[in-house]
Amino acid sequence: MGNPGTIKHLDAKSIALDYDxxxxxxxxxxxxxxxxxxxxxxxxxxxxxxxxxxxNRVSIRLSLVGCLLGVIGILTAFL
Length: 79
Known about the structure:
With about 80 residues, the protein is mainly alpha-helical. The chain has helices at about 20-25, 40-50, 55-79.
């Protein structure tokens, strides 16, 4: 990933949005001012849980189910 030099004014401190990201954020084309903050851990899971891409949705759901079953397995081993 990165800019091979074909996009003007795009450097390490810039963010470029593709069409889908701009549509999700409801921004119009052109220069806009966005405030970008670090996502909380639960916000990451929420976004992946509701992702449009089926492979992302399935992978996050299977990983959470696997973690839950692992915790249940550990608890039953000690009881």
